[in-house]
Amino acid sequence: MKMVKSLILGTAVAFAATAGAQAADLPVKAKPVSYVKICPQYGPGFYYIPGTDVCLKVGGGILVETGYNARSSIPFMNYGLGGFGAASNYTNWRTIGLLAVDTRQQTSYGTLRTYIYGGLFAVTGQNGLNGTAVNATAAGALGGGNGSAFLYFAFIQFAGFTAGQATSFFDFAPNYMVVANASTPWNWNNLIGYTANFGNGLSASISIEDSTNTNVGRTVAGVATAFGYEVPDIVANIRLNQAWGSAQISAAAKQLRFGGFAGDEWGLAVAGGIEIKTPFTGPGDSLKFQAVWSDGAVEYTGLGQHPFLVAGIVGLTGGAPGTAGVVAVSDANVVAGVITRTEASSFSLQYRHFWTPSLRSSFHAGYTDAYNVSSFGGVQVVQYGHSLAWSPVKDLTLALDVLYTETDVNNVTSDKVVSWFRVTRTY
Asked: What is the three-class DSSP state of 191?
């Protein structure tokens, strides 16, 4: 009996040892590993780049646009759709594919950030980005044909400094509407600037900015003259951001060079803006007012081009600065050795109302004028517009804009109504 028990026990031990050995040879299921770690401190969508302490957010979008009566043949107005609005076309189309890459990293000096925003541009009928637009350079056109690669933004921010292509520190707040207007300055420049934050939403900035995109030319003895600059534009602002809204005062100084004609002069622009949240009219509602005065710095009033190249304003563009077939506006003029700077101003009032959380309207009223008796005389632009935007789902927007423009150039009046439809998908 003892022999039988010993045999059974020995067999069981041998079996267990064999099974254990075989089990050791089987593959072991690995524990799940989180290869993408969320980076919550910068908001939704940021993730750590594996193996680094750099947080990354990748986004983008698709814009499909069409404009009606966006042609450029009407006197004194150039609403060519980003440069491909042929004079005979009443409707024009454009599609833009966008990519945004945002990286942020904590350092002993604060957040180090890089931001890139650009994409591909496809048009119908003519060349890609408008080669004759004031801000074509700002939009970064890289190609022609029926499409282009372009770059809206590319900048570095570190320890209060901003360097690269970014929104001008002169500008206050973006336009509520899709289609451009002549009274809201919005320029993208290559710049180097510094912002000091004083707490409680108060900050001050100073920057040096590329003069190219704010140049509408100088005229000498009635002839438009193009030349370079010794000094970039000098821009500064004081800004306040609060729970009720925001306010800003900004100024810009611009060198006006005339070579051997009369030496150099300086143009000046000053702006003030306020945006007030109006929850008593509806959640998300806001009201914005902005005024600009300039002397020898016309583009800072907004009387030029929209950086998206959605539409021109009164066509302060052409082969040579200030010599478009629309309105030959210049920053200054030289006649018999005497310099006369162009004085210009603009006022805009915009209101945005949410009918429902997904349906909103934006209303615009604006006035702009420019005057130089020794050059082009006088230009006045009055505009009224309305934008209706619907977002049926998150990050998808369908917008319809209608803008009425009346332009008076030396008592010759023209008016025009432009309608614009855009479908935008962002992520």
From this structure: strand
